[in-house]
Amino acid sequence: MATDGQTSTRPRARRIGIMGGTFDPIHNGHLVAASEVAHRFSLDEVIFVPTGRPWQKLGEDEAGNVIDATRAVSPAEDRYLMTVIATASNPRFSVSRVDIEREGDTYTVDTLRDLRTLHPEAELFFITGADALESILSWQDWEGLFELAHFIGVSRPGYELHAKHLAQHLGSLPPDTLQMLEIPALAISSTDCRARAARGRPVWYLVPDGVVQYIAKRKLYRAPKASSPGVSAP
Ligand SMILES: Nc1ncnc2c1ncn2[C@@H]1O[C@H](COP(=O)(O)OP(=O)(O)OP(=O)(O)O)[C@@H](O)[C@H]1O
Ligand SMILES: O=C(O)c1ccc[n+]([C@@H]2O[C@H](COP(=O)([O-])O)[C@@H](O)[C@H]2O)c1
Fold this sequence. Notes:
Helix content is 31%, strand content 14%. It is an alpha/beta fold. A six-stranded parallel β-sheet has the order 3-2-1-4-5-6, with helices on both faces. The longest helix is centred in the first third of the chain and has 13 residues, at 28-40. Bound molecules: adenosine-5'-triphosphate and nicotinate mononucleotide.
């Protein structure tokens, strides 16, 4: 604290965005979302965090039995490497392995706790698309999430960006707990990119060039998902 009547020169806390996703594959919708939030919220860095075991995307029932084999997710290392390739040219973007190195299902509550431990002084901003925000009440320990970071909901074509379902819970929290941001509309999804790659249709300009090349090199999304060595049960 300044004691001589001068203004304190203590630097402001580092502002870190967290872009969580399965990134199977990462596409330009993810990158634009992170870039827009970084600009509008004056973030110093955005950390992309590929999921380890995205439990809601595995097509499994509660006992872990595969009930929809078409929903198997690509190996975490492939998704991680595509994320590194896609973000490499932006000095403000980085990629974390916290979710892929933690065992078991991936829960955002754990992601935020791990990143808080790694960045104890930082202000954290978790970035989520309108579709993910819509289903946040189904996330593990969702009630505690809003105490761990600010949340930024971003628009996405085909989804309404709102927090009506959270109104009761957010009422008792500071107004900057959840903020909404309209971003340029890119109607791109990983599901569509996978379907295109599977049928030999182009994914150029939907995903970064290096990711197009990585998908081709690793022959991702070509074989039926049931036979790929993903993270769902064999
Ligand atoms: N086109 C987009 N515009 C804005 N946000 C997006 C867009 N695509 C994905 N997101 C957001 O990015 C995060 C990670 O998304 P994810 O990796 O599941 O991609 P996806 O395209 O939704 O994948 P899939 O089609 O396999 O469900 C989520 O918060 C999601 O809402
Ligand atoms: O915490 C949970 O239970 C939870 C359930 C579903 C999704 N999430 C997180 O939401 C982010 C986007 O996930 P997804 O599945 O849409 O790629 C990613 O960071 C996930 O870990 C988190």
